[in-house]
Specification:
The protein is about 50% helix and about 10% strand. It has seven helices and four strands; from the N terminus they run H-E-H-E-H-H-E-H-H-H-E.
Length: about 160
């Protein structure tokens, strides 16, 4: 349903003369096979709508890297993805094995007592564990291939904080 809405809106924009390049992102992907299944389903819906419209429209399909497993399997996932966006909130949460509901009660205290284990805190989330940073860097390095220009982005609290 969301793919349909994105592509229909992009077609309308294209018809109105605006240049658009939709980026359709699938969250919480575990591995290459899962993204491939989602990517194929996305393309079936999108390509049918584009063909019916008679408009020429390009789009790309990617994933949010939010799970440690996905970060570790980045090279394989990059075979299917046109882009990655690192979801720092969920990646931090899953890397540290924390629940968002509980973390606020003890993270600030943990960060102050064990400062060397964490990098600079953000305003709303006091910890960016080095493990999450390593996962992002490692995944980017594993996914990088000269023949494939994978777009890489970041979102979440850490992506919006220049001090993190």
């Amino acid at each position: 349903m969301q793919v349909r809405a994105i592509i229909e809106a992009a077609i309308e924009c294209q018809k109105a003369g605006a240049k658009v390049l939709p980026e359709i992102m699938h969250p919480l992907v575990l591995d290459r096979k899962e993204l491939w299944i989602l990517e194929q389903a996305t393309r079936r819906v999108a390509d049918e709508l584009i063909k019916k419209s008679g408009v020429r429209l390009n789009y790309i399909v990617g994933t949010m890297i939010e799970l440690p497993r996905a970060a570790l399997l980045a090279r394989e996932i990059a075979e299917v993805a046109n882009f990655f966006s690192f979801g720092t909130n969920d990646l931090t949460q899953t890397t540290m094995g924390l629940s968002r509901d509980d973390a606020g009660r003890f993270l600030r205290t943990t960060w102050t007592r064990r400062k060397p284990e964490f990098s600079a805190p953000t305003r709303s989330n006091p910890s960016t564990p080095r493990a999450s940073e390593c996962l992002c860097a490692g995944a980017s390095n594993r996914a990088a291939r000269p023949a494939h220009k994978l777009k890489i982005g970041i979102c979440g609290e850490h992506g919006g904080d220049a001090t993190a």
